[in-house]
Design brief:
The complex is a heterodimer of chains A (360) and B (294). Chain A is α+β, with helices and mostly antiparallel strands. Chain A contains eight helices and 20 strands. The chains are: A alpha+beta (360), B mainly alpha (294).
Chain lengths: 360, 294
C-alpha cells in the first residue's frame, strides 16, 4: 500500500504588506508523518503553520487536505487542531471544561463526553486535574492540557507551534520522546514547528529546513545531517567546519582542489556538478580526530594549536588553530585518552572521503 | 530608641502600607465617613421647626418614607432610570471598546482620548446641549419641521424619563469605555484563535471566550455608571420634567425648601442601601452567568 500525501501545498506565497514571508512554497506531507518545519526565527515557519490552521490566508497558492482544497476554509471547519506556543489555556474555565471546549458541537452524550475527556487526560498523564485552573498548573502541565484539548477532537492533523520552547531542558527531552510515542500510537499527522535543530532531529520522520521564506531542503534527519544541500542547511543542522577552496583540475571522477587552509587535496567520487571555481568544503567536527603525534591511519594530518576546549560531558569540543592559517577548526571527541589543555600543540587528522562539497 | 522604632517600621509591610494610604485615608474619614455617620444619626431624628431638630431616637422618618407611596415610587424610578442608562451605555460603548482593542492597530491611545473628548467640557454644558438637541426649537424638531416631515414640534423628546436616560448615558459613556477597553485589550489573542481552532465560529467565540474574559471590565463599567447616576439630580432637573423626577430631586428639596433634614437623611440612607445591594447582586449574578455561558 502506498502512503498517501495528506497535506499538499502548491505554489504558496504570503506577503504582509511589502514583506514577502513565504516564497512559492511547494510541500507534501504524508499521512501519519511526523513532519518538522525547522528554521531560525523570521523564516516563515510559523506563518506556514498558521496558514495550515486557517488563521492566515495565503496571498497566492493553494492548500489541500486529503485532496480537498481548504485554502479558504476557516479554522473551525478544518480537520486540524493546534497546540499553541503559549498553550492558550482558557483561564476562566477549569481543565475539564477546557478539554470539553471543542466537543460541544459534536452532540455527544454526557457519558461519551466524560469518557473522551478522561481518555484525553489519561493520554497526557494528568488524571485528577479536572478541577484545576490554568494558573494552578505548571508550564509542562499546561502544555499537556493544550495537547489533550487538541487531541480530544481526534484531528487528522495536529499542528504544533514550538510547543516545547518554554519548558526547561530536562522536561523538554522527556516531552520529545512522549510526543513521538503519542504520534506513533495515534498515527495522525503531526506538523511541528521549531527553531531547535536537535528537537527536529530527534523527533521527525522528515524535516523541512526553512530560511527567509524558502524551503531549502526536505529530507529525513540523517539525510539532512550527512548530505546537506547547501551551506545554510549544513550550518543550521549540527556543527560543521566550512572551508573555502578553489578547483585546480578535474579528471574523470577525481577533483584536485586547493583548500585555503590545507593546501592542495584530492577528492574522489565527487558527484556534484561544479559550476564555479570557488567551492565550499565541509567536514563535521566528529569526522576529525585530534592527537599529540600525527596519525598515519588518516589521509591528512595538520599541525595546530588548541585554542579552546568545551566539555559537554558526552563529548568534548576542541577549537584548533591551524599553523600558518588563522582558520579555527572545530573537532569533537567522545573521550580523550590523551589529555589536552589550552595552548597545547596537536595534530588534526581526517580522511578525504569525509570532505563534502557544499553549495552556497 | 529611635533606631528601634525605625527598625520596627522598616520591617513591617503593614506600617509602610498605611503610610502610603494615609493621605487618602484621612480624606475618606473626614470627607466621607464622618458626614455619613452624621447623616445616619440625623435620619433617626425629628424636625420640629424651621431651625430646630429633636435629637431623640425615633424610626419615624423611615416609617414616613414607607407610608408615603411617592418615596418608594421615586426610589424605584431612580433605580429603573439608572438601569436603563447603564444598559444603554454598555450596549453603545462595548462595541467601541471592542473595536479599539481588537481592530485598531496604531494610535490606540489617540482613539481613547477622542472617546473621552466630550468630557473636556463641563457636565452642565453637556446636559444643556441635550436640551438644545431635544427641545421644541431644538436641532431634531427644527430639522424635521424644516424638511416638512412634521408640522408641530415633537413634544415627547424632552422632559421625560427617556430624555434623562439619553442624557445620562451620553454623559457617562467615556467612563464606561475605559474599563471595557482595558479588560478587552488584556485578552490574549491566541485564546480567540484557540477557540476558532476548536470548532467555534466567531460569534460563539465571542460568547464563550471574549465576553466572559471581559467581565471584570463589564462589572466595572456597570458599577461606575449605575452608582453615580442613581443619585444624579441635575440631569432630571434640567431635562426630566415632572415625569423624570428622581428620588435625588426629592432629597435635594428635603434638605432645601421642604426643610426636613431627618426625612432627607432617611431617604438618602435607604437609597444608599439599595444601591449597595444592587451592586453586590450585579457582581454576583454576572459572575454566575459567565460561568454558565462558557
Amino acid at each position: 500500500m502506498s502512503i498517501k500525501n495528506y497535506i499538499k501545498i502548491k505554489n504558496l506565497s504570503k506577503s504582509f504588506g511589502d514583506v514577502e514571508v513565504l516564497k512559492n512554497i511547494n510541500l507534501e506531507v504524508e499521512e501519519g508523518e511526523f513532519f518538522s518545519l525547522l528554521g531560525p526565527s523570521g523564516c516563515g515557519k510559523t506563518t506556514l503553520l498558521r496558514i495550515l490552521a486557517g488563521f492566515e490566508y495565503p496571498s497566492e497558492g493553494e492548500v489541500f487536505f486529503d485532496d480537498a482544497n481548504v485554502t479558504s476554509l476557516p479554522p473551525n471547519l478544518r480537520p486540524s487542531n493546534m497546540v499553541f506556543q503559549n498553550y492558550a489555556i482558557f483561564p476562566h474555565i477549569n481543565v475539564q471544561r477546557n478539554i470539553e471546549f471543542g466537543l460541544r458541537k459534536e452532540n455527544l452524550s454526557k457519558d461519551e463526553m466524560q469518557k473522551r475527556v478522561e481518555n484525553a487526560l489519561k493520554m497526557v498523564q494528568l488524571e485528577g486535574y479536572e478541577n484545576r485552573y490554568s494558573n494552578q498548573l505548571s508550564g509542562g502541565q499546561r502544555q499537556r492540557i493544550a495537547l489533550a484539548r487538541a487531541l480530544v477532537k481526534q484531528p487528522k492533523v495536529l499542528l504544533l507551534d514550538e510547543p516545547l520552547g518554554a519548558l526547561d531542558k530536562k522536561l523538554r527531552e522527556e516531552m520529545q520522546i512522549e510526543l513521538r510515542n503519542l504520534q506513533k500510537s495515534l498515527g495522525i499527522t503531526f506538523i511541528f514547528v521549531t527553531h531547535d535543530q536537535e528537537e527536529a532531529m530527534t523527533m521527525s520522520d522528515r524535516i523541512a529546513v526553512m530560511d527567509e521564506g524558502n524551503i531549502l531542503q526536505v529530507s529525513p534527519p540523517k539525510e539532512i545531517y550527512h548530505n546537506p544541500k547547501n551551506k545554510f542547511v549544513s550550518q543550521f543542522i549540527g556543527n560543521i567546519n566550512i572551508l573555502g577552496a578553489e578547483i585546480k583540475s578535474v579528471s574523470n571522477e577525481n577533483l584536485l582542489i586547493e583548500v585555503d587552509c590545507f593546501g592542495s587535496m584530492q577528492l574522489k567520487n565527487y558527484q556534484q556538478i561544479i559550476e564555479n571555481d570557488r567551492i565550499n568544503i565541509a567536514i563535521r567536527p566528529e569526522e576529525i580526530t585530534i592527537s599529540k603525534i600525527s596519525d598515519p591511519n588518516y589521509d591528512y594530518n595538520f599541525q595546530g594549536n588548541v585554542k579552546n576546549i568545551s566539555f559537554y560531558g558526552e563529548s568534548t569540543y576542541f577549537y584548533v588553530q591551524l599553523n600558518n592559517s588563522d582558520k579555527i577548526l572545530m573537532v569533537s571527541k567522545n573521550e580523550t585518552k590523551e589529555p589536552f589543555s589550552e595552548n597545547d600543540n596537536c595534530f588534526v587528522n581526517f580522511s578525504s572521503n569525509n570532505l563534502k562539497i557544499i553549495k552556497d | 530608641m529611635n533606631s528601634t522604632i525605625q527598625n520596627i517600621y522598616f520591617r513591617s509591610d503593614q506600617a509602610k502600607a498605611y503610610t502610603l494610604l494615609s493621605p487618602a485615608l484621612i480624606l475618606v474619614i473626614f470627607a466621607m465617613a464622618a458626614p455619613m455617620i452624621v447623616m445616619i444619626f440625623t435620619s433617626f431624628n425629628t424636625q420640629i421647626s424651621m431651625i430646630e431638630i429633636d435629637r431623640t431616637f425615633t424610626t419615624g422618618r423611615y416609617e414616613d418614607f414607607f407610608s408615603k407611596p411617592i418615596f418608594s415610587m421615586l426610589l424605584f424610578r431612580s433605580v429603573k432610570i439608572s438601569f436603563f442608562v447603564t444598559l444603554l451605555t454598555l450596549v453603545t460603548t462595548y462595541p467601541l471598546a471592542y473595536y479599539i482593542a481588537f481592530y485598531v492597530k496604531k494610535n490606540k491611545m489617540l482613539w481613547i482620548v477622542l472617546m473621552t473628548l466630550p468630557f473636556w467640557t463641563s457636565y452642565l454644558l453637556r446636559v444643556f446641549s441635550w436640551r438644545v438637541i431635544l427641545g421644541n426649537k431644538g436641532v431634531i424638531n427644527s430639522a424635521l419641521m424644516g424638511t416638512g416631515m412634521i408640522d408641530e414640534p415633537l413634544g415627547f423628546l424632552l422632559y421625560n424619563q427617556a430624555a434623562v436616560i439619553i442624557t445620562l448615558s451620553h454623559a457617562w459613556a467615556a467612563f464606561a469605555i475605559l474599563p471595557l477597553y482595558v479588560s478587552l485589550d488584556k485578552i490574549d489573542k491566541s485564546l480567540l484563535e484557540a477557540s476558532y481552532d476548536l470548532g467555534n465560529t466567531k460569534f460563539e467565540t465571542f460568547w464563550r471566550v471574549t465576553f466572559p474574559l471581559s467581565l471584570p471590565g463589564v462589572i466595572g463599567a456597570i458599577l461606575i455608571i449605575f452608582i453615580p447616576t442613581v443619585g444624579d439630580y441635575v440631569t432630571p432637573q434640567l431635562v426630566g420634567g415632572t415625569d423624570g423626577r428622581m428620588l435625588s430631586n426629592m432629597i435635594q428639596s428635603l434638605f432645601g425648601r421642604a426643610n426636613n433634614f431627618p426625612l432627607g437623611a432617611a431617604s438618602a440612607v435607604l437609597m444608599l442601601t439599595t444601591v449597595c445591594l444592587i451592586a453586590a447582586l450585579v457582581t454576583y449574578i454576572t459572575k454566575k452567568v459567565s460561568m454558565r455561558m462558557s
